[in-house]
């Protein structure tokens, strides 16, 4: 693992005292940080803070790798059915560590249908031969509406082709014992992988949720976990000012207190683009909370936004540099690319291209990153950089663990439960009511009454 | 065109007076809106507000369609080289109106390399046979660093295969006369399409920038423009309360004044996902400005965030419902899907799935949208809905124009220039300096001095 966390551009020495922080600001939080760290260790011991223990799963890796080898031989298509935390991590692993055109050359082709758009699913159904497709259904409870619906959608195709043998094309990742997928697995001999206790969806990428599809794609999952383990050791540092997870959390916490309600994750690498999407869920769902642990109403949280460098310099940077100073930006930077080449000016009669002559794309990309960093810093806009030597299994594993630990520290500083999501319940109930689920009739009437009141619209 | 703009859930009747608006609030802005509308018309007449005139280009459509037919016969690959406004619109057209797996069945395969990540470009170079590839280079000035670098990158492959015939595999969309691409086109007989005067990058999707790749993909570009024309007529309505572009702008403006600094675009449709990305550039770069037209420092603008329903209910909704009430959410809803089917509960021993029996995926998706809308509204979180009957050329064209006109109105209400981007200049200069471009030596020294001061980091 080789990862560096640079927080120079949040310090008042570099961006001034109005928008900058002092080491004293950060040090003042280190007592809370250390208490939190000790609590994490205790809770991990009791399997309540499951993600903390995930780097050490050698036996599981062996099991998954041998399973993956069989799958690669038997199937031409692999369809991963999960949503939210059951999809964002797996997708980020695939896009960061595999070729962007993976499906045009590899077997099995891998798909992640993480939504229920009928036209989009129809397009996927048209691509695959279900009899040669393994469906990986991922849900702790098995009751997740979108996952269940997508599974039922593909079951139609499966049973019409394979009849009673349909179960041979299913694999589940679910709760160790409870839930609806386990009920199905009791009726048919379906292979099941387990999500360990105390690991919530958004912290589950290093369980079979992410490891199974990764191994099937040929990603070295042991290296992934070894990177996470290295980072876990660093994030266990009791000197809080040398603990990158605490530092990331403390800096974000201090800016939340200063009213900066937006956290931007901006990789300068297409391969890391979906890492920002994964982070968006982690940060939003963990920290966006109405009540703190004392039941006080606080409505806290930062809205995560994703951007991609250099692309979004042509989209978001105008706003970041000149608009409200209301955000903290984290760059992800890659030092070494695998296939960098020198450019040549083929149009010698255009001297305006000469500055590109002999330079590589990677040099240009990282010069643009430095330039953006500079423009932000000169305009007192706080920004951080997480720099990895290269996009590798180890560094991706390290990044996942770093962000998860940082989220746990941020929850502790905010004095909230970073591991629940009570705010999604209301929408679930309303969905059941609108879908005429038994027991929700009264709720449906309430909803219809509300929608009947709608009266403000313009028709184009 | 069939598009409806529903603003019920920003009205105080539905979300209370603390976070809601009254019709009086909106009406108070209608005088400014009408003046702005009259100014738009005058400036469009003088070709200063170019996007306003784009719906009416029948002759251009004929030219592009006949060109596209030739391209489809001659080439197996089409690579669109552009960034920011030269890519986001073309990408959104492709993903909304074509099959998600277009490249696995169609010819030419279409790619949009809108970044300079060396590994990502290398993966693309590996996919194509350059001698059968048409490269569409899009840049008004031809000087855009990323576009120039990407063109030079592929030129290496092109000239090594085709030698002096390389130009036959190039097509440019650029300024009518000025710029570097026109210099190249004077040396070689390269086909050039034109970006009309007064059309900035982020307003250029309905010029050849978007129309050329769309036509090559078989999208009906006349229908696209006819939808835009229908919407242009609606957005020309002088009764401001019936003008959806003004209404969208006025509502966002009022919330900016109330401190809601985030604008979320959340389509409930995978096909419309990249529409949100296109919107992000339009809204951020147009409205994120340091100075108003009187040169007063105002640092205005909203940070646009994108989310995807139902997927991001499992990612962002916890925050949107329970976190800070600091955002205005716009849903994009599709009424009719093309390939919707009824679900069947194949696991009859699991009654928990019964509510899905006989329901369609589209019903579930839109029930989830309604449920999310309800949860937000019940928690006084303002939200809007733009509803289209179906994802079609006409409605996509209408959406583009609606958002562009809304952005123009928002700029007028904020009293800013919505059509420039002065804040990106500083980063450009620093990039040139770091790339050792002639004339930037002093700047490079300044930058190196600044980076030498860096001292705050943690190593993992």
Describe the structure.
- Chain A is of the alpha/beta class and 460 residues long.
- Chain A has two domains: 3-42 and 224-414, Rossmann fold (3-Layer(aba) Sandwich); 51-219, 3-Layer(aba) Sandwich (Rossmann fold), CATH 3.40.50.10490.
- Chain A is built from 17 helices and 13 strands.
- Chain A has helices at residues 12-15, 23-27, 30-45, 58-74, 88-97, 118-127, 145-162, 180-187, 208-216, 221-234, 244-257, 273-287, 317-322, 361-378, 393-414, 425-434, 441-452; strands at residues 3-6, 77-81, 109-111, 133-138, 170-174, 191-194, 262-267, 289-291, 297-300, 303-306, 327-334, 383-388, 457-459.
- In chain A, β11, α14 (361-378) and β12 form a beta-alpha-beta unit.
- The first copy, chain A, is globular, with a radius of gyration of 24 Å.
- The model of chain A has no long low-confidence stretch (mean pLDDT 96).
- At the A-B interface, β1, α6, α7, α8 and α10 of A face β1, α6, α7, α8 and α10 of B.
- β13 of chain A pairs antiparallel with β1 (3-6) of chain B.
């Amino acid at each position: 693992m080789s990862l560096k966390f640079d927080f120079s551009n949040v310090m008042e020495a570099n961006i001034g005292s109005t928008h900058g922080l002092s080491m004293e600001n950060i040090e003042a939080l280190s007592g809370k940080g250390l208490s939190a760290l000790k609590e994490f260790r205790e809770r991990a011991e009791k399997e309540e803070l499951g993600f903390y223990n995930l780097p050490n799963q050698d036996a599981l890796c062996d099991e998954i790798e041998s399973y993956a080898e069989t799958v690669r031989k038997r199937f031409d298509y692999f369809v991963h059915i999960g949503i939210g935390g059951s999809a964002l991590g797996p997708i980020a692993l695939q896009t960061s560590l595999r070729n962007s055109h993976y499906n045009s050359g590899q077997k099995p082709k891998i798909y992640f249908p993480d939504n229920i758009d009928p036209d989009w699913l129809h397009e996927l159904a048209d691509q695959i031969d279900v009899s040669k497709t393994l469906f990986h259904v991922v849900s702790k409870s098995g009751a997740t509406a979108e996952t269940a619906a997508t599974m039922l959608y593909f079951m139609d195709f499966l049973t019409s082709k394979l009849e009673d043998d349909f179960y041979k094309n299913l694999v589940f990742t679910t709760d160790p014992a409870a839930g609806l997928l386990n009920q199905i697995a009791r009726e048919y001999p379906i292979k099941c992988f387990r999500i360990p206790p105390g690991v919530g969806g958004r912290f589950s990428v290093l369980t079979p949720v992410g490891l199974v599809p990764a191994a099937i794609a040929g990603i070295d999952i042991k290296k992934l976990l070894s990177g996470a383990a290295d980072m876990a050791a660093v994030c266990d540092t009791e000197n809080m000012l040398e603990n990158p997870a605490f530092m990331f959390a403390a800096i974000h916490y201090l800016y939340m207190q200063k009213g900066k309600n937006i956290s931007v994750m901006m990789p300068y690498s297409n391969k890391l683009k979906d890492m920002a999407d994964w982070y968006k869920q982690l940060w939003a769902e963990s920290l966006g909370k109405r009540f703190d642990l004392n039941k006080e109403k606080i409505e806290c949280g930062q809205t995560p936004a994703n951007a991609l460098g250099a692309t979004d310099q042509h989209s978001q940077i105008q706003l970041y540099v000149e608009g409200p100073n209301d955000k903290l930006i984290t760059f992800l930077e890659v030092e070494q690319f695998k296939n960098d080449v020198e450019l040549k000016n083929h149009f010698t009669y255009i001297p305006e291209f000469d500055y590109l002559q002999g330079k590589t794309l990677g040099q240009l990309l990282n010069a643009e990153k430095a330039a953006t960093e500079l423009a932000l810093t000169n305009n007192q806009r706080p920004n951080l950089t997480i720099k990895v030597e290269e996009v590798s299994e180890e560094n991706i594993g390290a990044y996942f663990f770093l962000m998860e630990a940082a989220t746990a520290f941020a929850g502790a500083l905010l004095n909230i439960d970073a591991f629940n999501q009570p705010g999604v319940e209301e929408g679930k109930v309303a969905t059941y009511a609108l879908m005429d689920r038994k027991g929700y009739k009264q709720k449906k009437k309430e909803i219809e009454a509300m929608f009947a009141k709608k009266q403000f619209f313009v028709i184009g």
